[in-house]
């Protein structure tokens, strides 16, 4: 069990992690002509700030892009974008453009997300680009964005005006990621299977942030059956949320799960049984690299944060504090109605 001080710090971090508040910020609106112009680097073509055509305000960026390849890069960003973020850009064009214009966002040329931009009409067009829907190359950490680029690859020279580039982070969708109907448990069954990742739809209500998660098959690590879940860490305080859970956990006494760590060093993964984002029962499981850890956690011994209730559970969450480069494979996640000993390796195991 954790020390009280460490647990309180983690609890505060988790409140911040799951905070539902939405916010927006301006990435560039060109009203400060000198600083705005210096933030942009143009490769192929020319770029400047002008006042003849503007979406809102008095200034906007004028980009004369050359055919074949032209690249416009925005520097000096606040790097924390959040995986729920949506980018808005207003773009003026002399005529509609169906293809050849792209937005790329990420860390570098090896790790980025990209989305095509279609301009449906002459004049001003509003483009909304959700980071979660971008095609991703490599592993992108949306908390550390350093690359923000517009790329033109059309067959003819083109002129664009860009303005009012902003970023909005939507409310955390964890509650919306839960099933509409209650998850039923057979009263005669001795267990509830959270997931063994063998069914086609058993990852439907698995949601993650500052990380990625996907089903995998052997030869990647699988404890039993044919499949496991690979959770690849990327940013600060990553988490993976399981929403398909019963509301009433009072019959259950033990959580068991198998975890394989692919990393350079050991780490601790935290399991939370949540009533709300801030009210939860939590414990720690220590994972050693290159091996399966079969953990067993007594629910009655878990630390209570806030005012959780086992009769009003909404999700099961796995997270780590801080930032790590690692992959964790999950398999055979189950809640048992009886006490069960043995098989637990690392803190939190029995």
Task: Write up what this structure looks like.
The structure is a single chain. The relative contact order is 0.16. The termini are close together. The protein has two helices and 24 strands. A hairpin with a 2-residue loop joins strand 7 (about 100-110) and strand 8. Strands 1, 3, 4, 6, 9 and 12 form a six-stranded antiparallel β-sheet that branches. Strands 2-5-11-7-8-10 form a six-stranded antiparallel β-sheet. Strands 13, 15, 16, 18, 21 and 24 form a six-stranded antiparallel β-sheet that branches. It has about 350 residues and is mostly beta strands. Residues about 1-20 and about 340-350 have low confidence and may be disordered.
Strand content: 35-45%
Largest sheet: 6 strands, antiparallel
N→C terminal distance: 12 Å
| Quantity of strands, as a count | 24
Order of helices and strands: HEHEEEEEEEEEEEEEEEEEEEEEEE
From the alpha carbons, calculate the radius of gyration and give it in angstroms.
Answer: 24 Å
Helix content: under 10%
Average predicted confidence as pLDDT: 87
User: What structural class should be given to the helix and strand makeup?
Assistant: mainly beta
Question: Number of DSSP helices?
Answer: 2
What spatial form do the alpha-carbon principal axes imply?
Answer: elongated
Catalogue the unreliable spans: 1-22, 341-350
